[in-house]
Amino acid sequence: MAKQDRAIRTRQAILMAAAQAFEKYGYQAATITEILKSADVTKGALYFHFPSKEDLALGVLDAQEPPQTVPEHSLKLQELIDLGMLFSHRLQTSLLARAGVRLSMDQQAQGLDRSGPFLRWQEATHHLLAQAEHNGELLPHVNPTETADLYVAAFAGTQAVSQTLTDYQDLQRRHITLQQHILPSIAAPSILTALDLTPARAERLGRLAPED
Question: pLDDT for 32-77, tens place per residue?
Fold first, then answer.
């Protein structure tokens, strides 16, 4: 058991060191030597957990998964809002999440499959929108697939602008503004008035976010 715990700690140390390098330098410029030095592990230990630099990057990209700690709510559109609020908080507090976003947006990361996070966000968003449609929360014209594609693209762009201008410090505000513009176009009027987009809710949800 102690051996297994040590292996888990070693893997996490390597991931955190890789995240630090990828966020600072990008995929191409980050080196295994730098990651080994930061993680304070042997080359054998690193390659045992991650056979290549690409595998390391994919491990960091996994941190950009949609949050799994979103509280269940009777309104699925509220769950969609909460999903964005939780991830906005995570980008302000998690090195792994920030590095994952940096990698997913890194145009110089040649040979690295960066599609995973976008596809998983589209899947999670579509799932909630399809449930919302089934529950009568959406306006009749709304197509969950098209809306999920648009939502993920808009949220990714919002993250990029926030990172460039304020290092994610205004992301929660920008995310709420994004929702205020999208939701009136997709939500039934009776549902729209019941949704909570307040910063206070974002703060409460932030306390649920797991730490690295």
Answer: 999 999 999 999 999 999 999 999 999 998 877 788 778 999 999 9
Helix (H) or strand (E) holding 141: none
Residues 6+ apart with CB under 8 A from 9: none
* Total domains present in the chain: 2
Cβ distance 151 to 102 under 8 Å? Answer: no
**What is the share, in percent, of the chain residues with pLDDT greater than 90?**
80
**Residue 80 sits in the same domain as residue 117:** yes
Give the CA-trace dihedral at 41, 42, 46, 51, to 10 degrees: 170
Identity of the residue numbered 107: Q
Give the range of the structural domain holding residue 50, as residue numbers without chain letter: 1-62
Can you say how many angstroms the Cα of residue 137 is from the centroid of all Cα atoms in its chain? 25
- Phi and psi at 187, nearest 5°, equal -95, 140
Q: Are residues 103 and 33 in the same domain?
A: no
DSSP string over 84-114 = HHHHHHHHHH-HHHHHHHHHHT-TT-TT---
Report the alpha-carbon angle 66-69-73, nearest 5: 100
Nearest to 81 by CA among 193, 178, 160, 207: 178
What are the CA-CA distances from residue 50 to residues 104, 109, 151 (Å)?
Answer: 19, 18, 33
What pLDDT digit, counting tens, does each position of 23-40 carry?
999 999 999 999 999 999
Token couple for 1 = 């058991």
